[in-house]
Amino acid sequence: xxxxxxxxxxxxxxxxxxxxxxxxxxxxxxxxxxxxxxxxxxxxxxxxxxxxxxxxxxxxxxxxxxxxxxxxxxxxxxxxxxxxxxxxxxxxxxxxxxxxxxxxxxxxxxxxxxxxxxxxxxxxxxxxxxxxxxxxxxxxxxxxxxxxxxxxxxxxxxxxxxxxxxxxxxxxxxxxx
Length: 177
Hints:
It comes from Hibiscus sabdariffa. By secondary structure, the chain is α+β, with helices and mostly antiparallel strands.
């Protein structure tokens, strides 16, 4: 059922189909994310768009020595919570980039760079078309940015003593290519 503010209400006849729809994403239609969430009593159509989305990210040129599930989970977890790792990445079949789905709070700046063992690693977000490379937030572009905040680079020291919760933002580097 089409309801206001570009929301849809969907009912499934099968628990299997429901489980796939809720947990199988992130789903993309025409290069845009389709946010699928279980209905709750607190749901309101007055919210113009969701604050959280599960999005795919890519880490291009990641050193081959880091293509281990635990390392990729730790690197991704230093950005945002990892929902899942792309099968091709997890199986070691994709070497050009590591790909994972992470949970993003769209109200907070996106992490666009990581410092991994002293090497700058760019984080690419798939199909988030309106990312501001000035403040790092989703929803507007640099030319109409309401802030002049400097972006975030996270330092990810990879060692045997994971987790990566010690990653700290560095205001020294601006967002953007």
